[in-house]
Amino acid sequence: MTGIWHMTNYQPIYHPDSSKVMEEFRGRANLIGDLTGKNCSLRIKDLKKKDNGPFIFRIEIRDFNKYSYTDNMVSIDVQDSPASPRLTVSGEVKAGDAVTASCSVSHSCPTELPHLIWSRSGTTTNQSEELPNGQWRVTSSLTFTATNSDHNQHLTCTAKYQQVTSVQSSKILNVACKWANLFIFFTCFCTKPEVFHNIFQNEN
C-alpha cells in the first residue's frame, strides 16, 4: 500500500517518492500514521500561512485498486500566531500559604508539544490530553509559597513552540497578610494627676 496526500489538482504534498512532491512541501510533510492500522496522519513542519489546503488522502494498492478520499478533504485554519495561554491562580493568595497556578494551551501536534515556562520558581507538574477535532491541550501547574515580596508582582507563563514562536500571559499577584486583623494596644502614662483628670473628663 502507498499513502499519498495531494491537493485538489492532484499535486502531491506527500509521496514516498519525494521527487513527486510539490517543491514548497518537499521535506516538510511526513506521513506519521500506520497505514496497516488505518492511520493516515500527516505532519507538516514549519507551517506557513498558505498551507491551508484543502488536502486529500489517496491510497494506492499495487495491482489492485487506487482511491482518493475526496469526501473527506482536510482544510487547516492557519493563524499568524498561537493563542495566548490560559492562566489561572486558585483562591485568595496569602503570605505563607501554598499557591497553585495553572497554565494551559491547545495545539495541533502531539509530537511537538509547546514548552510552558514560568517566571517564578516552584514545583511544576505537566500533563497532555487529547481534545476533539484533532487538537490537544498541554497544562502546567505551578505550586509555590507566597511571600510579601510577591505582592503586585507579575506571574507570567510563556508557551514556546519549537523554540521559535512564543506567547505569554500574566497576572498580577495580590498577596494579603496572613493575619489581616491586627489590634494595637498602648498605654499612656501621665506624670501629672490633673492631666489624667482632664482626659477622663473629656472622655465622659
Chain-averaged pLDDT: 86
Major sheet attributes: 4 strands, antiparallel
Shape annotation: elongated
Strand content: 35-45%
**Fraction of residues in helices?**
under 10%
Poorly predicted runs of 5 or more residues: 182-186
Sequence of strands across the biggest β-sheet: 2-1-5-6
Structural class: mainly beta
* Strand segment tally: 13
How far is the first residue's CA from the last residue's CA? 102 Å
Q: What count of helical segments does DSSP give?
A: 1
Order of helices and strands: EEEEEEEEEEEEEH
Radius of gyration: 31 Å
What does this structure look like?
The structure is a single chain. This protein is 5% helix and 38% strand. The protein is mainly beta. The strands form 4 sheets. A 4-stranded antiparallel sheet has the order 2-1-5-6, with no helix packed on it. The protein starts with a strand and ends with a helix. This is Ig-like domain-containing protein. Keywords: Disulfide bond.
